[in-house]
Amino acid sequence: MIKIVSGHSYPSGPALALVNLCNQFNARGYACVFYGPDNWHVDKCKSGALADFIPEAGDTIILNGIALLSTGDLRDVNALVGAGGRGRLRNAFREVTLKLLPSRRPRNYRLFLTCLSDGGLPCSSVRLSLFQKVHFVSSSLKAYSRTVYPKFISPDFSNELKKIDNKPEKVAGVVGSIKRENHIAEAVEAALLDGMETVIIFGYMKDPEYYFDKIVPLTIKHAGRIKYAGFIDNKQKMYDAVSDVYVSVSKPWSMVGQECAMTNTRFHAPGPASADGRMTNDQIFAIWKNELVL
User: How far is CA 285 from the centre of its chain?
Assistant: First the structure.
């Protein structure tokens, strides 16, 4: 069985990408379950709680966002993720100790690492020798990792979106989790400077302190013009509601720019567009099938 195991499954772009990956495997005849610590994913694909995950003989395990340093950790990966930032000194000592010990790949199952963004755990946080290969969603992210370990590139599966001609006027969407690294406030201000009459923020509330510190003052200053919609997993509904989309961080691996093109939505972002080009879901799956030797 294919088992996707992630250190988080709260509503976010990476979690949605894993849901789509799981659904693609199952739709094409390959049994797959997505295990995560949060509840958001449970009704969106064949899923399980992180505490229910058990590595079994013959499994193909795709790991995301978990600092795995030994195969023994997989026997209680929920405890490993739950430790979070607690016991940092102890965890640092454990990391140094384990990295000094010899390691080898598990014999009864195969491990693959997937890196869906530069905001997750770096490759240095895991023991690469445990994995068959590392997956990246774009060549730019691959270069960022600087790993020389066996790897492959495959973009996220795209949503089936329709082009809408009757779009609203001067309604901007700001897309991204609410956290400082995504500079959501700057994207809101850019939309207002461009003359947008309404700005809707679409993203999971990852950092409430940032929201109240940087975004709430903007909602007071521009009363009635800024709205918070939260994370919307119905992408068609989101793009139907806006004329423009703004982001303030260049992420060439993000699907947002491509989805804007699919839905007749103007896209505003710093930096160059992705050079990887758009692929069909059949082409993307063919990569996964080949790299995982399914």
Answer: 18
- CA 163 vs. chain centroid, Å, equals 24
pTM above 0.85, yes or no: no
> Rounded to an integer, what distance in angstroms lies between the CA atom of residue 161 and that of residue 7?
29
Neighbours of 236 (CB within 10 A): 16
The phi and psi torsions of 58 (rounded to 5 degrees) equal 90, -5
DSSP H stretches of helix in 160-255: 184-193, 208-210, 216-221, 235-240
What does the pLDDT profile of the chain (294 residues) look like in tens digits?
999 999 989 998 889 999 999 999 999 999 999 999 999 999 999 999 999 999 999 999 999 988 888 888 888 888 878 754 443 434 544 454 444 444 566 778 999 999 887 555 556 677 888 899 999 887 766 545 566 688 898 888 988 889 988 899 999 999 999 999 999 999 999 999 999 999 999 999 999 999 999 999 999 999 999 999 999 888 999 999 999 999 988 776 678 888 898 899 999 988 665 545 578 899 999 999 999 999
Nearest to 178, CA basis, from 167, 170, 187, 190: 187
Give me 169's structure tokens: 């006027």
What is the maximum span of the chain, computed from C-alpha positions, in angstroms? 62
Instruction: Give alpha helix (H) positions in the chain.
Output: 13-27, 77-83, 88-100, 139-145, 184-193, 208-210, 216-221, 235-240, 256-262, 281-291
Cα separation, 193 vs 189, in Å, equals 6
Q: How many CB atoms lie within 10 A of CB 44?
A: 18
